[in-house]
Records
---
Amino acid sequence: MSMRNTLIVYRKELTDSLRDRRTLISMVVVPIVIMPLMSIGITVLMISVIGKAVQEVPKVMILGGDSSPKALADLKAVKDLEFVPAEPDYRQQISDKKIRAAVDLPSGFDESLKDGKDATVKIYHYSGDLKSGIAVDKVENSLNKYRDTTVKLRLEAHNLPGNLVDPFKVEKENVAPPEKVSGAAIGGFLPYFVIILCLTGAMYPAIDLSAGEKERGTIETILCSPVSRTHIVLGKFLMVLTAALCTAVLAIISMGVSFSVAKTYMAGRGGADNPLNASIGLKAIGAVFFMVLPLAVFFAAAMLAIALFAKSYKEAQSYLSPLLIVAILPAIGGILPGVEINSRLAMIPVLSTSLISKEIVSGTFHWNYIGLIFLSSCAYASAALFIAVKLFQREDVLFRT
Amino acid sequence: MIEAERLCKVFQDKKRGQVRAVSEVSFTCKPGQIYGLLGANGAGKTTTLRMLATILEPTDGTARIAGFDLLKDPQGVRRNVGFLSTSTALYGRLTAFEMVQYFARLYGMTDAAISKRIDELFTRLEMNEFRDRRCDKLSTGMKQKVSIARTLVHDPPVMIFDEPTNGLDVMAARTIVQFIRECRENGKTVIFSTHVMSEVEKLCDNIGIIHGGRLLTEGTLAGLREKSGLHDLEDIFVQVVEPHIPKEMVAS
């Protein structure tokens, strides 16, 4: 009988909530439309912008160099750079983005090299500007090659071996498949999104089913039914949990779909470390979801308890909005580089789940931490649910005026 | 049958400290009778009826309703009570049918029994026309009918009405008054609170005058008239209540 009553309440709350526009927007529209638009859209936009910047031929001004035809010819041989005649306002032109960089070859540069004297080539650029950076890279590469050739010629002139200044080589070889590398980079965001969406998905139903009922005057109606208050609050809690999980699942599915679409559309663009080349296994997604489950229970129960305390929809909103920020902060902590899980952090709700999920997504399963975090999240969830149930028994909370 | 025994309710108020909303209220209401709880705003009517409906727990005292003690078996009480007040609103996003069906399910009725009972109630209350319309789209009168169907769906022997006509127009109020009368005719125990004298005169077999949380007097209308030597219920009410109003308030 008891479970039956909870399910009756749950079924009614589900029907009721699915007819509420605000709940529908936060539960369905946000995860299906807005989240993929935000995440995939920004990635696609970034790749396009970088792609365009790489394709553009930057203008570079060469200052001086009249007395150094050799170095000048070498520099001008660089492909994908457009050289413009020297003008005195080169600094202003760089700032105005008319040219991307300027190279100052000191007078008598060829001569200095020949005589083995010190010389400095100066590159003027605009730090932080992507296109200026690309131009500088190209100029610097060319100058480095020119320097190496000069060194080689000098060694040969003194009959010295070429490896004198280069006694050994350093080689790096990546063993991780490219999709794993980018997977680890983007994977940190997956738990972050799931956690945030669980929270936003739970918010509106939590308010609607508690403070909303008080405001509409239906709380007294349900209290005079023979169902115990524990069963009523459990039915409501199940609905809030459903909304939280539904939001997260829909977001994962829709992000997965838009990810593959974006991947096909952007195929071959953006280079090897293109985050769209990432692939996150179903097993990892399942594991992340499993870890987020007790957290969703915690959110649903905590939000219901807090909203229950409020007298009106507006009051509940003003209580829960700061909570959103409080919960987002540790979730962000999870995506910061260098923050790694340890037994102390494993006790902090949200942050621990975010951190362990990041590890799971990159293919590392620390079973001891997984167990510890799952249990601690379950403990927090039980405590929140217990408080929600207890608050629903209190007359001063239900009839707070 | 309702047997209230020294019901008390004390609230904790931040500003005023302990507030005694109801103090030692005792009365009996028998099947086939209507008991009217008459009092001004803040007299303790709503708190008394909420305690009888087990929405609030008494600080002291108890009541037996349809044979169930409200402290020992509140669920048993709720199964045998229909509670209607202006603050028992409807779920706006449910249809009239879904609203009544939801409560029928909560009362543990089977699907077959629910279907039969709803057909019967909707026909009797002329609700079939708006059966599948959402409650937030209904007129006040229609909403009242849905509330009545909700309180009657489990056919309770005891009916509790807390200022049921408050804020209603004449037609909607008439529907309620007629419904209360029908409840008595069907042998139900009825208690209702109001501050409208004409309703009490029209409906009640027994009247209790409540003020400051205390039941000051009770009896039949004829009995009260005889005791006070007055005919008009309003005059009787003032005569009973006035000695309990602080002098400075009477003067102002």
---
Amino acid sequence: MAIDINEGNLKHGVLGLVMALVEVIRDALKIQALKRIDSGILNEEECERLGKALMDLDLALESIKEEQGIAESVRAVRDGLDDIVDTVIDRIVNPERWQEEINVRS
Amino acid sequence: MSTSRGRYIYGVASTGCAVSLGGMGIDGSEVYTIPYDSLCAIVHNCSTEPYQSTDEERVKKWVRTHQGVLDEAKKALGTVIPLGFDTILQSKDEVISPDQVVKDWLKGDHARFQTVMERIKGRDEYGVQIFYDPRVIAKQISEENQEIRKIREEMAAKSPGMAYLYKQKVERAVKAEIEKLAGEWFRDFYRRIKDHCDDIVVEKTKKADRNRVMLLNISCLVVRQKVNNLGEELEKTNNTEGFSVHFSGPWPPYSFVAQPTIATPDVKVESNAT
């Protein structure tokens, strides 16, 4: 993934990248939170606090994206990451890709 | 090096005549045919340098001209095997003329050209892309799916924080359901389209925009008289709520002709096919 940085889009580029990473961490947190809740080890009040915290986090991230006008660059970084993950998984689960890789290298 | 040592090849037609198609080629070059036996190559004289430019508009114009020549050639000469943009044959030494190189190439691959010609005769390529709108589909699923409805009902009675977590749960469940259904839709659409095509090449799906997810991206080889049937079938899909179809063509059957192989080792093909 090439990140095109010049003075004009430096802010968008870096902020977009940082925000995209924060979103990825947030998504991981959400998955963990839902697991905790389903497991039943949290009481009602703890669940409520967790939900509230995630909601506040989401609202904060959305408003930062809007204020800075970086929603598009965040999306672009995340799409780029998605593509990389897609390619890697495709390589791992499809043995025919291994042969292609060997052919390309030889 | 002379400026006309190369032959830019647009395609191969199934006629053995030498004809001129006029100055319709790239940058106004004279397009003509070099025959060998029952085949001919549609060419113009060029240098051995491939057509390259950083000016996107210029490249687009070249590609459109390439396309235009193939359309005209089809009208004038019948079935044409299209080659990719920037396919240039050249001779490596002064002994063999570039025309001879083209003839040798037609000769060496004669049998394969005949087979491909039979396969694409009277047929055109069409591009079909089917999209779904994740908002519409998500709404349908969250109303119809029992399990998701249950989570939504429980959600109504929860405090704000909990309700937010339930909302995440619903979103995840809907997403998983869409992924499951997408596989079924793909198989269903593919089967229905297959009935109207001689051959299908499945292309990679591309990212559309946030309100349109590309479910299926295929190239179809269709008998000219049967294309209306395919159009009607796709119209049905296009009228289904949450789905839209992009249907394009007729194109030269690029996806159904393998790349040209090289007949003789002293011939070099420059190909920058896009």
---
Amino acid sequence: MAKDSPNIVVVSGGLRSPSTTRLLADELSAQVSANLPNANIDMIELRELAHPIADAMLSGFPSGALAQAVESVYASDGLVVVSPTFSGSYSGLFKSFFDILERERLTDLPTLLAATGGSSRHSLMIDHALRPLFTYLGTAPVRTGVFAATQDFGGHSSAELGERIHRSVQEFTRAVTASTRDPQAFEQEVTPFTELLARGD
Amino acid sequence: MQFGIFTVGDVTTDPTTGRTPTEHERIKAQIEIAKKAEEVGLDVVAVGQHHNPPFVASAPTTTLAYIGAQTENILLSTSTTLITTTDPVRIAEDYATLQHLVDGRMDLMLGRGNTGPVYPWFGKDIRQGIELAVENYALLHKLWHEDVVNWSGQHRTALQGFTSTPRPLDGVAPFVWHGSIRSPEIAEQAAYYGDGFFANHIFWPKEHTQQLVNLYRRRFAHYGHGTQEQAIVGLGGHVFIRPNSQDAVREFRPYFDNAPVYGNGPSLEDFSQQTPLTVGSPQQVIERTLSFRDYVGDYQRQLFLVDHAGLPLKTVLEQLDLLGEEVVPVLRKEFEALRAPGVPDAPLHPRVRGVVPDDATPVNARDYWTGTRAEDSNSLSDNLA
């Protein structure tokens, strides 16, 4: 039940401005757009939401611009996530954003995992840290993750980064196109009471 | 429409003085608060149930009976009675006893509780919270509506030939509200039974409340209890009032900034805008409260939280004066004028409405197995002799 114009959300978790994480997010976004010309692409910059994220962790609900960001993730047909590598893993802010989300709303969401880091020695962070998180959240991460070390932005390894981006975006595009996820399904759901009662039998 | 107060019974340090009330002071304060609520003309006082510090509210029916003995008119309720971890047989017995003691002047609100370890402390599994609420209430409902109960379920030992005593006063079970912050299953449960639905409302954006109340109304009609407009809805509210708005904000801010639920988070201003919290003049509280009707429709019960976050008793009693003298009388009049025809009041026990049944002659319970009654024992021993 692929849509003609899928909603794609890109979450960029870089803390500085300008940020290499955002640079990678922009490149992924451009490639996705080239593959899915009718897609609506929404870029969420977590730095701008840092304070509301801390508030939401304390109050239990997102508000304002954060609430809009959360809703756009729920309503999306595909998710691209990009985190910097901090202490060998995703950043705390990045994790906090996903802690606020209700995982029931992310079921089967095609997801492209990407990260930046100071050195390619952190590249397994995608499979050791990001992938388990997004599996727990019930999303459907595509096979190829994209890790960009600082040195990948120039020189001979930049072509390899381009190749990884291409491969990952191809997988992501196919996943979004083939997805049967219905973002509205959650809201329509009411379990009839007789069914709730019967669970005890 | 009913107006009242609800409390969770927290023991919290007053951030302006650093003083923490003792448990004894806090328990006694709840009684003073309830008596004051009656004195200023409020309709309902509801106490909580918790089983962990910093709360003192572990025995709601004991507290309510004590309040009931010292008051005449105010309706006693809970906020909430833990249906998940309390044995439904004890709920049936305790609340039926309370109902007799206060001549029907009570109801109760069921909730699941949100403190994780309470479940294992009472031998339950938090992952089964909804299932426990569903099964336990199904049993409670049966215990109050059927004289002799045979029952088996997943979460409690089975019952054979069990009669919960005392039977509800005049055969009318206490009215039940199902309280929830955001669980559609609980709205569905309230609708299925035609019971009341109470949306906690406070501390959360109004959208949660709106969605759940709409769901409850729709399903209430679906199950044939009446129209959507006839469903019985209650809401929480969260206020701090001073005659002058700036004084209210200045005085409440340190309590807000350090409150257990939201302290150190959003600003008072943001939280007031994002949730139903209203800190200001009586007029501001009146306007905000009237606006609740815009998104839930005509409703039957409005309870305010006024005694948390370490506010001293003296301040809480002043809040009640302002509520009773300046806020609630206006709200009563305004809500009454706005209310659509055919919208019912929240159910009250017939005795509270002044109806004592003609056939209130005692029906003596017979032992299910032997067919004997307590008063048969003399003649029985005579026969044996």
